[in-house]
Structure prediction request, 93 residues.
Amino acid sequence: MLSPGVVVSGGSVDRSVLSPDVRIESGASVDDSVLLNGVIVGEGAVVKNAIVDKNVVIPPGAELGVDLEADAARGFQVEDGLTILGKFQPFPE
Prediction:
């Protein structure tokens, strides 16, 4: 489900909910996730099985929800197969 103001520029979205002002850049993929207001998914990034709160920027080429151990090592909350990022949470490079 895409809310008003969502921009998908050559990326793909499957079985996900995108709130207003979310941007999915070219080559990015979002599957089985919920992205809240103002989230930006950079070019070529992959987001799977994630809940991403407001105004988080996922950098180009990053992976979220693909490797749960790597997500936990980066300080993200991982519960029941979901990776959860809080509001304004920085994404380490």
About this structure: The mean pLDDT is 95. The first helix runs from residue 68 to 73.
